[in-house]
Write a structure and sequence with these properties.
Potassium Channel Kv1.1, Chain A; 278 residues; elongated
Length: 278
């Protein structure tokens, strides 16, 4: 007879439970009401005509015990543990499988924060998270990863795609976005050449002028200053602070919103603004 380890950590102070989940050699004692409230999948399993409805024990084959405990702990009322940068990769598949929507959203928020905080310059990680976004239909994660991928060099993209292949339609979106960013960079360089700016000090003077709120009436100048700072003056923190002040104060129409969205993801995080938000 197979032996199981008993997990009573979800039974509360009174030790009450009315269902036992058999997971990876363990018996986890839980309350049906909690599972049914959190998950329509469990609700259909335990309240409909499914065979599990009247069973005191339900086997969940193919699940890892530690992963499942982490998953339960995130929505169980007396636990409500936070999804972490580490646990999100284990919790997300279970949240999607059991349709725990609030947990799906939390996992996506965590992954978006993780990509922004740690992975923007890392092509392999960007493509890895694009795969996750496609697999689990995570639109916010998909957007940030497509934008970040469009800032990468072609050689970086090719290396990352070899390790984490992504669908052709996503590649098309990445390359389209990259071309739009290149077009804006070309316009900026043409303007610098027209004004005979050829030295770094001259660039800084020009960028300060473009971001100067005291006379600036064209918001395109501010986004142009942000692009030029990113490309030529990243060590000038004072200039960046001026740009941040300007960009936070400007009125955003659809055209400017597009230009802000086309800024490299790295500088968007430095600026602290996000025009992708609804």
């Amino acid at each position: 007879m197979e032996k199981y380890e008993i997990d009573d950590s979800f039974t509360g102070d009174n030790g009450e439970y009315d269902l036992t989940l058999i997971v990876d050699g363990h018996k986890i004692r839980v309350a049906k009401a909690v599972l049914c409230l959190a998950s329509p999948v469990f609700r259909a399993m335990l309240q409909s005509q499914c065979k599990e409805k009247d069973q005191a024990e339900v086997k969940l084959p193919g699940k890892k015990y530690k992963d499942f405990v982490e998953f339960l702990s995130c929505f169980y009322p007396d636990r409500l543990e936070r999804v972490t940068y580490d646990s999100v990769y284990r919790i997300l598949p279970l949240a999607v499988e059991y349709q725990v929507k609030v947990l799906e959203k939390e996992c996506q928020r965590r992954l978006v924060k993780l990509v922004k905080a740690r992975h923007l310059p890392d092509a392999v990680q960007i493509y890895r998270h694009l795969q996750l976004a496609e697999l689990y239909k995570l639109e916010d994660l998909r957007k940030i990863c497509i934008s970040a991928a469009s800032d990468l060099k072609l050689s970086q993209m090719e290396t990352a795609a070899a390790e984490h292949p992504i669908p052709e339609n996503i590649l098309v979106q990445i390359h389209h976005l990259a071309r739009r960013k290149q077009e804006l960079n070309k316009m900026d360089d043409d303007l610098l050449a027209k004004k005979n700016h050829s030295k770094s000090a001259s660039y800084i003077s020009f960028i300060k002028q473009e971001a100067d709120l005291s006379w600036c009436t064209d918001n395109h100048q501010i986004t142009k200053a942000a692009r030029l700072w990113y490309r030529y003056c990243q060590n000038n923190e004072e200039l960046l602070r001026n740009i941040i002040t300007s960009i936070e104060s400007m009125k955003v129409d659809d055209v400017i919103k597009e230009e802000c969205e086309l800024l490299p993801e790295t500088i968007k995080q430095r600026l602290g603004v996000d025009y992708n938000k609804n």
